[in-house]
Write the structure tokens for this entry.
Amino acid sequence: MKNKTIFYLLFLLFTNVMLIAQKDNEKSLQDYKNASLQEKFEMNKSYAIKVLPILSSYQTSVEDIFLGVKNFGTMVTQTNFSEQQDVLKLTSHNSDYWRACMEMEAGNQLIPTTKIFMLVSQGEFDYAFKYLEVVKMFSIPEAYADLYLGELKNRLELFNKQLNSEIEKGIAEHDKGNFEKAISIYAEIIKQYPNSAWTNFELFYSQSELNKKNGEGKRNTIEDWNSKKKNILDHNPFFGLPISAQNAEDAYLLFRRNSIGQLFRDKNETVDDIYKYADIAMDLEIYDFAAQLYWFSLSHTDKNEDSIYKFLYCIEKLGVTNLKQNFKGNIEKEFKNIKKNKEKEMIKSEVYKSYKK
């Protein structure tokens, strides 16, 4: 009887704790919904900084045999994400990151989830969301990381909805020919979220049109566009660039970039589309994203051998050269074939040939 009473009391205590946590979460979500864009920006960064130690604790507690996971988790634990950090250096160019991805059980996306939260901690929501979209596809609900992915997805979708609404106000002014007004709207958005690829593009576009309107079209140089383009693609390497190509190769890459919009329209083609997405990312030299997708596709497609070699090719491009020794085959020969085939595909494409005429 006494044991039943204790059990009942513990059950009530647990239930009350869960109810309080649920109410706190609902209150926090409501506060987030009511926040300004800039407040959401800061709240998301703070949330990521709080979650990262939790994610890394799962990594540092693994057995020593999983050295990549343990080393990566230790690095995350020892890094202050309240300060400016080079996330790509800590992940994409880090051998331990890719070894950790290889060591984790399929479906447990703890390692790429950690990368996503690292990006968010630094305010790089655009690229984080591109990762989140695909990582969530391969994340099993039973994994702890999936809970945090779901929460972050909700946060970023609310953020993007508000961001897009503000950008569209600027576009409306631009379409009326009120370029100065559009520029002021975009400038205000950038104050609140400086890493928006779309806002930075629209700011460039409105400024270019204003230059033409004021008879200062000479200011719209290709050099100016190239510098602005780099800033845009640094925040979102996949951003669609509605600007004319400068040469045949550029035309082909623009075509490849724009073809992303044709993917993921049919749920039955999702796995094949992941592989196609990886190929596009590799063509665009977004090697970290491509490598992640090739690794995902290893256990989900009939292109296992191709995926392995392309995965290794991409991480080699990122400077990670010490993992290919774990795989059989003539790796260097396969790398040469990948490069040769990429060039053939470009030269044979109708887009490339039509530009060359």
